[in-house]
Amino acid sequence: METPVVALAGGVGGAKLALGLSKILAPDELTVVVNTGDDEEFYGLHVSPDLDTVMYTLAGLSNEETGWGLSGDTFTAVERLKTYGVDAWFNLGDQDLATHLRRTEMLRHGKTLSQATESMRAALGVRHPILPMSDDRVRTVVSTDEGELPFQVYFVKRRCEPVVRSLSFDGATEAAPSPGFRAAIEAARALVICPSNPFVSVAPILAVTGVRDFVRELSGLRVAVSPIVGGKALRGPAAKMMEELGLDATCVGVAREYAGFCDIFVIDEVDAHHREEIEALGMRAEVADTVMETQADKVRLARHILGLKE
Ligand code: GDP
Ligand code: CA
User: Fold this and answer.
1) What is the tens place of the pLDDT at every residue in 83-117?
2) Dist CA 199 CA 13 (whole Å)
3) Atom 19 in ligand 1: residue holding the nearest Cα
4) Mean pLDDT of the chain
5) How far apart are CA 258 and CA 206, in angstroms?
6) Which atom of ligand 1 is nearest the CA belonging to 232?
7) Burial of 219 (0-12, 13-18, 19+ CB in 10 A)
8) What are 221-267's pLDDT values in tens digits?
9) Cα distance between residue 130 and residue 283, in whole Å
10) What is the rounded average pLDDT of the residues 3-28?
């Protein structure tokens, strides 16, 4: 794979591979572009869960057990909000709150989400650029058997229990890619779609005006990694969503989402028997150990991907 590389990421799954890539590539060889369809305002603050997961992971500060927030964080502020009668169903750590306070203040003073992210990631010692997909407001809406739910209501408050009928990305067609995203994708010699949820992490990025065409026209290698391993999501609702949407909850079902603008689809060793079905979709299937538990796992998968050739 040639550099520079643009990696598209959601939260936890995306951050794992982004970390692996960042251990091998120099800061001018990798740009991580992150979903902001999950962003929401809580307690007066602008919260960007996926941006923060990627930023904390690359900074080595993430809470590996929960998959979100900062390791060793405490939750006294949100407990105090409950004392005031606030229905504080969205938990935010005390140290994590500093990130949301700072972001919100910068936005209120006219900075963009890109600028706020840039300032904090640099302060945390992260050397690789992390960019929101857009500086404009895009919100994922989950249409369910209980009606239309804002993403965080579906995901956190309702614990992904409602049956998903469809997804939409409010604001996406009016949203422009962030300036850094546009520049990075114009310069890119390769694209990596991280093993993030295809429907609520990658789809919102692709829904931003012009992004799908940019990806379609990118001349370098485009590689996607399946977040579905052995018919299951390693965490989160991806497989449940696929069943509810009437899709195959397998790596082949994910590959169908990316057919037409992906050259190589990376599947796990346990899914090697799906190779031919994937190749029938018009992309090459590459088999790898895609389960990333340790840092060594993340670097190993990143190295495998960076070693792929057309
Ligand atoms: P979220 O925004 O925090 O939900 O995170 P993402 O959308 O980036 O990632 C969620 C997806 O990552 C889930 O569908 C998981 O199955 C997938 N995932 C998590 N860890 C791994 C891993 O180690 N390997 C692979 N292949 N997928 C993973
Ligand atoms: Ca997310």
Assistant:
1) 999 999 999 999 999 999 999 999 999 999 999 99
2) 13
3) 13
4) 97
5) 10
6) 16
7) exposed
8) 999 999 999 999 999 999 999 999 999 999 999 999 999 999 999 99
9) 28
10) 98
Instruction: Sort residue 40 into left (φ over 0), alpha (ψ -120 to 50) or beta.
Output: beta
Test site for ligand 1: of 39, 196, 202, 291, most ligand atoms within 8 A of the Cβ: 196
Q: Is the pTM of this model over 0.90?
A: yes
11 lines ligand 1 (CB under 6 A): yes
- 200 class by beta-carbon count within 10 Å (0-12 exposed, 13-18 middle, 19+ buried): buried
Residue nearest to atom 24 of ligand 1 (CA): 291
Q: Is residue 265 classed as helix, strand or coil in its secondary structure?
A: strand
pLDDT digits (tens, 9 = 90+) for 53-77: 999 999 999 998 888 899 999 999 9
Non-local (6+) Cβ contacts of 255 within 8 A are 224, 226, 262, 265, 267, 277, 278, 281, 283, 285
Q: What are phi and psi of 220, to 5 degrees?
A: -80, -175
- CATH code: domain 5-145+169-306 is 3.40.50.10680
Please name the residue whose Cα sits nearest to atom 4 of ligand 1: 11
Q: How do the domains of the chain map onto residue ranges?
A: 5-145+169-306
